[in-house]
Amino acid sequence: MRVLGVEGTAWCASAACYDAEADAVLIESDAYEPESGGIHPREAAEHMQEALPRVVESVLAQVDGPIDAVAFSRGPGLGPCLRIVGTTARALAGSLDVPLVGVNHMVAHLEIGRHRSGFSSPVCLNASGANAHLLGYRDGRYRVLGETMDTGVGNAIDKFTRHVGWSHPGGPKVEAHAEDGEFVDLPYVVKGMDFSFSGIMSAAKQAYDDGVAASGASGGSSDPSDGASVEDVCFSLQEHIFAMLTEVSERALSLTGSDELVLGGGVGQNARLREMLAAMCEQRGADFFAPEPRFLRDNAGMIAVLGAKMYAAGDTIAVPESGVDPNFRPDEVPVTWRGEDEDVAIAPESGPVRGAEAVVEFDDDHVTKRRVPKTYRHPELDATLRRDRTVQEARLTSLARRAGVPTPVVRDIDVQSATIEFEYVGTTDLRDALSAARVRDVGRHLATIHDAGFVHGDPTTRNVRVGGDDDRTYLVDFGLGYHTDHVEDYAMDLHVFDQSLVGTADAPDELRTAVRDGYREVGDEAVLTRLQDVEGRGRYR
Prior knowledge:
Helix 4 (153-164) packs parallel to helix 6 (198-217) and helix 12 (436-451) runs parallel beside helix 14 (508-522). By secondary structure, the protein is an alpha+beta fold. The chain has three domains: 2-117 and 294-327, 2-Layer Sandwich (Nucleotidyltransferase, domain 5); 123-257, ATPase, nucleotide binding domain (Nucleotidyltransferase, domain 5); 353-535, Transferase(Phosphotransferase), domain 1 (Orthogonal Bundle), CATH 1.10.510. The chain has helices at residues 41-62, 79-96, 105-117, 153-164, 171-178, 198-217, 230-256, 271-284, 293-296, 300-312, 379-402, 436-451, 487-504, 508-522, 525-535; strands at 2-7, 12-19, 24-31, 69-75, 100-104, 123-127, 132-138, 141-147, 190-191, 194-195, 260-264, 287-289, 353-354, 358-362, 366-371, 410-414, 419-423, 428-429, 454-455, 464-467, 472-475, 482-483. It contains 15 helices and 22 strands. 43% of the residues lie in helices and 19% in strands. The longest helix has 27 residues, at 230-256.
């Protein structure tokens, strides 16, 4: 079987042929390279119009044998570019008299990593220009476990490099300048498995401007007290942004029970990001795989490979129904090419439990939680996060208890070693004992702490304990919590829990309704209204 793939979601016009029998992929690409600034949709579409016929012709000239199907990227991407790709694919399918397959670009990033690695059911971190999210397989679809709440990671970096005056793409330039930089503090924002880049980008621009101003005022002095150099800012951007992505990736592994991680997207070509992810997985005892660079950047090879899997499963699309979708979410795709029972089987845990941040040891009547140093993070950043989160967890756990929410009693805290001793509560994580009644309890608990003026920060089905003699529902692990009076923050708290339900429940709809019902019993309806806005803010809405 041979499948012709056509890709053109944004900047790269690409064609490929995948020979399934030989497991060989031939790729021809022609990238749009703007002279300055970022990608301009009209210019990108003009490039696509000119380059696609050329790369397709080149691939077909090298193929020895018939084509069985044509696969194309339906989205997400830039509408003008996608429409040209769709028209090209339809024309090719018609002229070759073969079926048409419509592929989700972001699912293709995941599937090429799964295909090349041989992993069974990995979590995937997609880190590309316009997107940044975590995907995990559950109940016949790839679920979005976490994602950026403002801009894609590549676009965020490009905003900084445009400010500096560098041309597109900015990522390789930041990586090169980071080699000579030193650490400076920048904002670090993770909310469960979601994250935000807007604050760190503003701070990076300001740090650069301050450094330029100080250097000019001192006649070009290199004294560190004069402000951060562009090398320092680039180094610190990488250390913060990639640590955020690595942290949420580990949190997704912990939530889903998977011990496999694959990387996708053009930003995945960055050596420091791959180094961090590999170090995290090694420390955790998980397997990590990053495809070779030709499969990380936008390419038709991954479209052809996934297209072949879909074609073999009979998942083709009629021409009248083959319209493109610039906002095509990966969780909208029925995964027809995988077995029905391929969800990760979560093994029972015994002895010390390794979460995303800490090792937890259970004794007869108490629990000891120690935040372990993370080898992937810069030592200064790591020490700050471990210290601050340990203190915050102890404080907010006690505050929630005083507000009437079941939490374990804090028995002891050692800030120096980032260790807390708690009362032993519950018998299992909510993840392993989901029910509508317990989820409704969580909704009420979140509304109660919000009314008290703070958020949990990471309310997932792993951070809720249930069972025991009283069968109560306890909130645990407040390390990412903080004081706030903003409706937006309360809605984000609910959103994090909602995503964890989607990632761990076989049939999450009833549970998602239950948490909202519980919140409504105690909390402010305005938070639930804002939750709808937050849910629509993902990069694919």
